[in-house]
Amino acid sequence: MSQLEKKSSMIEIKDIDNRSIVGSIEHDFELGSERGGVVDIDRSEAGSSFMAYLNVVCVVVGTGILGLPAALKQGGWIGLLILFLSWFMSVYTSVLLIRCLYANGKTRLTTYTEIAILAFGKVGGYITFFFNAWLLLGGPVLYLVLSGANMNQLCAGTVAEIGHIQWTIICACSVAIPFILVKNMKDVAWISALGVVVIFIVVFVVLIMSAMEKPKMAPSHHDAVIWDMFPVALATIAFSFGGNVTYPHVEAAMKKPQDWTKVATLGLSTCAALYFIVAVSGYLVYGSDVASPVYNSLPTGVGQTIAIVVITINVLVTVPIYATSFSLDIENMFDITVERFGRVKEFIIRAIVRILTMVVITVIACTVPHFSTLMSLIGAFGNCTLVFIFPVVFYLKITGIRNKPIYELVWCFLIFLLGLVGLIFGTMEAIKELINDYGA
């Protein structure tokens, strides 16, 4: 056994005892090579950690930022505390999730569903796949709903005002092209870069416009806490940190997987900073009258138009990221690979799967046109589960409970409790609101 192999074996033992699975990966390695006894995936064509950071920021920050002022309206200023906790908890669970990919001690797992199978067998895999699909398809549905409404709003009073459903279909066709052509998360990194740039513009516009409006407006009404609407506010905030479903594929596209903890921490911290700016400025200025999306509260004019245009760009470039992650899960499940089918046949099968995926997403987007309520429902049912509950449960099941310090178990319990409250009560309230929306 070589010196490197000896070092790897010692690291494997340390991983199991100290749970530092991700942090212990010190070298790049390709398919068939081993690190700590774990055979990794092929990273010969992987991208940089910075590109992974852009993927995280783009997929997380997205439309969640638009609903945060309204989340404070629903739950009161205490929502800032939940936002702060969600930030720390989402960083922690993102690290746990990637640790679980290496936890079987043999090969790196590929998907969230495979982690669930390792923890709870096929039943756990089926349940997780359902929630995973709910979020990876629900996110694009929400984004297409928003982009269709935005385009119709921008074209108001012109011949291009053809209706939000028609614009939703047009937007879906436009994002279908890159979605079909790109193959993995590395290939969508340039899309993420564009998404990050435009979201910074949105934050800047909301901050400046709300600051300009503050002196002109009458004092707004604010609440410290609104208990009956607190769960649905929690669900909206949970939606804002939804990205776990894409993390296995983002990490798989990294040349240096040992940088994942830094990437996740920096990426989610960037999102949190932007969230606090928009949430505080929007709710402080407009109070209980703030709209979701928040730019609808801005005065009509150039500022609002810029915000609508750039957020539309952001959501459209985010759709391929979510949809690609879902397709990679499907392609992995059915072993749709070049090695099995050859380049041409593999591309044709992959294209058919992705076209059908976009058709399903578009049909749902055209029939559920309520942005705010839809975001709360997706956040409660999907994100509360996949961001807060499952990573903790899977991690403890796979690595054990008795070998954890009491403070870590308490922290895991708090994360689980937050997710459970958002899941149960947030889903109930979101469904009630959705029913009311359709009855209105």
From TrEMBL:
Its main location: membrane. The chain crosses the membrane at residues 50-71, 77-102, 123-145, 165-182, 189-212, 224-242, 263-286, 306-326, 347-371, 377-396, 408-428. It is found in: Membrane. It comes from the Eukaryota. It is a multi-pass membrane protein. InterPro entries: AA_transpt_TM. It holds the Pfam family Aa_trans. Residues 47-431 form the Amino acid transporter transmembrane domain. Gene3D superfamilies: Amino acid/polyamine transporter I. One of its GO terms (molecular function) is L-amino acid transmembrane transporter activity. Keywords: Amino-acid transport, Membrane, Transmembrane, Transmembrane helix, Transport. GO terms for cellular component: vacuolar membrane. Belongs to the amino acid/polyamine transporter 2 family. This is Amino acid transporter transmembrane domain-containing protein. It comes from Mucor saturninus.
